[in-house]
Amino acid sequence: MSESSPALQVDGLWKIFGQRADKVIGTPDALLSRADLKAKNGCVTAVKDVSFDVAPGEVFVVMGLSGSGKSTLVRCLTRLIEPTAGQITIDGEDVTKASESQLRELRRHKVSMVFQHFGLLPHRQVIDNVAYGLEVRGVKKAQRRQQAGDLVDLVGLTGYDESYPDQLSGGMQQRVGLARALANDPAILLFDEPFSALDPLIRRDMQNEVVRLQAELKKTMVFVTHDLQEALKLGDRILIMRDGEIVQIGRPAEVVARPVDDYVRDFVSDVPRSHVLTLEYVMRAPTPEDSREGPVMSMDTIVRQAAQAALASAHPVQVVSDGKLVGIVDDDAILRVVVAEESVPTAPTKQAV
Amino acid sequence: MTSAPTTEPGLTTSPPQTPGEAPGRVAPRPRRVVPLWGWLVAVVVIWWVASRIGDGRAVLYLPGQETTDFQDRFTDLKADLIAGRDTNVLMQVVGAVSDAFNGVVEQLQGLVSTPDLPRPVPQIGWLGVLGIAGWVSLAIAGWRHALGTMASLAAVGLLGYWVDGMDTLIITFFSVAVSLALGLPLAVWMGTSRRVNAVVTPVLDVLQTFPAFVYLAPMALFFSLGPAIAVAVTVLYALPPVVRISAHALRSVSETTIEATTSLGQTGWQRLIKVQLPMARPSIIVGVNQTMMAALSISVIAGFVNGPGLGKPVLRALTAGSNQVGVAFIAGASIVFIAIMLDRVTTAASERSELVARGGGGNRRTHRIVLAVAGAAALVSVYVSRTYFSFAEFPDTEVGPKVAEAVQSATDWTTSHFSGLTTGVQETVTTVFINPLQDLVAGSPWFVTGLALIVLSQLLAGWRGALSSLACLTGIYVTDLWYDAMVTLTSVLVATLFVMVVAVVLGVWMARRRLVDRLLRPLLDAAQVMPSFVYLIPVLALFGPGRFTAIVAAFIYAVPVATKLVADGVRQVSETTVEAATAAGSTPWQLITKVQLPMARGNLVLAANQGLLFVLAMVVIGGLVGGGALGYDSVLGFSRGEFFGKGVSAGIAIVLLGIMVDRVARGAAERDRSAPGLLARLRTRTPAHHLS
Questions:
Q1: Ramachandran area for residue A4 (φ above 0: left; ψ -120 to 50: alpha; else beta)
Q2: Interface contact flag, B262 A177, Cβ < 8 Å
Q3: Torsional sign, CA B466, B468, B469, B474
Q4: Helix (H, G, I), strand (E, B) or coil at B579
């Protein structure tokens, strides 16, 4: 895979709320814990020296508990909240140095956002809500309505064009929010806990919707959530935040398999490992005695998916990467992950599909 | 986050007998050795003893026909201003504004109320006015309200007050137009700039504390009596509601929506036009409604300064004494018809526009056709009213005088048959409440009363309250109207006491019984719409002129607002808490006294605050019907040139009294943490049902 330049690059980003916050950066005060800094001069550090890259087409999840600074972080990306220090580069352009009008151009064409509480305009029909971004950048009414109509169909709201937000359920309102964000045809989509106000069933539908749209549209996404299941389901990579700081960045399996500290370990302790871990994290180094007749699987196969074939075969699984044997997975290893995880020890082979 | 243990009102989770031993409490607050009410009683007792010792000395009584140097200075100032009318720049500006106002009012009068010479009648006669008013109501509020509007106007005409009614509407609408032209841009500025908001809000706070009455005197310094001063005073009084409510509405547009639309790259202008204004529109229309009702209320009071309209006949009848109650009644009824009409139509218009904005409101094409047909009918009515004399000038009918006569005889019958009852009530309240309190407040040496009031302010509202009371009392002392001010304060306190008793009883009843709420609330809403002036009429009929009448009128005027606040406060008490208390086996009485009222304490304090201000406004107007004291001094100031200075001084004293009671009540409310944000909400003087 060729190494393309990142779609979004964040470098040393800080956000400190409070008066004279900019004076704090670069002093020893900046390293104080949140409570100490607040006690000292009333400032609150929401985002503390955060850096990361997001590749084009990647779904990058920012996850943390409430108050961890994740919502502030995502708002800093298009300067809905003005960052205190640091650099944000989108499409080769330094967002932190952009003028008001450059910033508007960025928001109108390159980056859109979906909000937790939807933020729809109650006095406008669905179609005009979706078309709002086009309207503010001056697209003619007939054209923007037509474009917006296509998006209303895309998010599965066909027939609701002329409804008002009040008349829709929460899930449907968020579909409107999604369509509105897509209407500008942005390269990057930001999601700020978009589904946490929704019922669990609706939430799952919406998550599937995002997966579907991602497969269809290949947008770069930054997705903020406090729901680990959601993060694992959607994320190509996950950034875990605590008190404004990065605790860990990694692929879902990596975070679950190798938590960097007790905080993350605690977080992931309830995750059904077999659904997340890949063979990479359960294999052992091959030895010359190992049988070479078992099924061959790639390193990023999820354990649950490998289980049936692995257990059906009398030989251990051979894990390969770039055509080379890199590890061996025994039945034991599979069973440890699959069975030890399940609270009711039923036959795992029947569950696995 | 960092929550220090605070004393929470209402239910506490720990058993009350062991507050210090509850785990987790860092530093238990030492119990006050003497409770607050103990201090209050002690102050009053000492005050009373001192007043006995003083025995009527040093009360600073100034006889009604005397003035002092301080007061004469205003009289001289007015004379100087009038003398320098042609050279003083300020007076020239005021003169220009005055001419402009007079010109516009005259034009409008020629259009609908007075003969537009050389025509013997106005340009548009009564039928034409009915047609146009009906059409406008139809367009903005629907056909029911169109019928209501035409019926109200016709009723005013039948009662014999067509011309005065038109004049009142002219002053009201013109003032509202000026208020909106000034107020809406200001509101937008406040709504978008935090700094402007911070500067203007306290000014509006103070303006809204003033009783309508006190705007008259300072204005009379600059304007000569007539339409222009009526408009100027009305604008000044009507401006704050729309500014406050609109600015507040603009500021409280959902943060998420602003953020979401900003994230799509809108400009600041697009945000204002496409997001903030449309989303704030329902509240802005409520603000317009409030402004209109305020304008109507004071345009009537502007009868004092010779403002055209229905205020003049009411005023004439009220001052003429009890044999004119019938006439005052029909003039007052005309005001009521107009008030209800304006309120209903603007409220319906706001609801309707909201409905239409959200896609309701029926078939638009049908609506347009109906409007076109009705418009044609309105044009025909205008044409007819210009062509036929009897459709131009409202025909004289016997209805007005007959109603007046009937009311008069009913009043006479009532007063003669129930005089025992009314006199009994009057004498009881006077001897039990008013006289002893007046002996204490006004009859003590001035320094004793002053000190006592400052100490009480400190106890109730802390040092800031005491400081503002000190400043206000000093000001009152300077006006040389100390005794009158204290008499007025007595009336205010007595009326407010009764207001609170009734408001708590009714409010709790309303909050606990849905049916009672459904029956009472429309009545209270309607009562709040009435201009203060009309309350005097029935009370005067029952009790005759005097201090007591002013107090009763003030009581009636203030009860609705206070009752609604109490009811809303009690209803806001969380369901869960009430359920928990019921589950613990509380009797209804225990539930009310131990849970609902303590938890509604914030609203109770606010009800007292509003009650005080409403009562003060009315007690002052009561000067007109023998209420005496500051109200009388003000009236004297308008009616007799040589007492102008005394009138202005009385106005200043009224303002200072208002600020004093407001600050003390507010201080008490701010100390009470159970009422966060309520104060700000209340300042908009928005009826609670509009907000919910």
A1: beta
A2: no
A3: positive
A4: helix
Question: CB burial class (10 A; 0-12, 13-18, 19+) of residue A40?
Answer: exposed
CA A217, distance to chain mean position in Å, is 16
Whether residue B263 and residue A116 make contact (CB cut-off 8 A), yes or no, is: no
Write down the ipTM of this complex.
0.78
B107 neighbors B101 (Cβ within 8 angstroms): no
> Which DSSP symbol is given to B685?
T
B397: helix, coil or strand?
A: coil
Residue numbers of B between 253 and 292 with CB closer than 8 Å to A: 254, 256-267, 270, 274-275, 278-279, 281
Helix segments in B142-276, DSSP class H: 143-158, 162-192, 194-209, 216-222, 227-251, 255-262, 268-270
pLDDT at position B14 is 38
Domain with CATH 1.10.3720.10 in chain B: 165-361
Nearest CA in chain B to A124: B358
Of residues A107, A116, A163, nearest to B265 (C-beta): A107
Nearest-CA distance from A108 to chain B in Å?
5
* Residues of chain B positioned with their CB less than 8 A from the CB of A112: 263-264
Can you read off the two tokens belonging to residue B9?
Answer: 């009102």
Residue-range domain boundaries for chain A: 275-351
Q: What is the CATH number of domain B165-361?
A: 1.10.3720.10
The answer regarding whether domain A275-351 maps to CATH 3.90.1280.20 reads yes
Rounded distance, CA B657 to CA A317, Å? 91
* Partner-chain contact B254 A119, CB within 8 Å: yes
Is B256–A118 a contact, with Cβ atoms under 8 angstroms apart? yes
**Alpha-carbon distance A22 to A213, whole Å?**
40
* pLDDT at residue A282 is higher than 90: no
Rounded to an integer, what distance in angstroms lies between the CA atom of residue A164 and that of residue A183?
A: 18
Question: Which backbone phi and psi does A191 adopt, to 5 degrees?
Answer: -120, 125
pLDDT of residue A179: 92
* pLDDT score of B152: 92
pLDDT in tens, B524-561: 888 877 777 788 888 887 787 788 888 888 899 899 98
Q: Taking CB atoms and an 8 Å cutoff, what residues of chain A touch B353? A: none
* Cβ-based contacts of A176 with chain B (< 8 Å): none
Test A136 with B264 for CB contact under 8 angstroms. yes
- Euclidean distance between the first and the last CA atom of chain A, given in angstroms as a whole number: 30
**Encoding tokens for residue A170?**
């929460």
Q: What is the pLDDT of residue A145?
A: 92
Q: Which of B259, B265, B270 sits opposite A115 (nearest CB)?
A: B259
Our CA-based measurement puts residue A190 at a distance from the nearest CA of chain B, in whole angstroms, of: 10
Do B266 and A104 lie within an 8 Å CB cutoff? yes
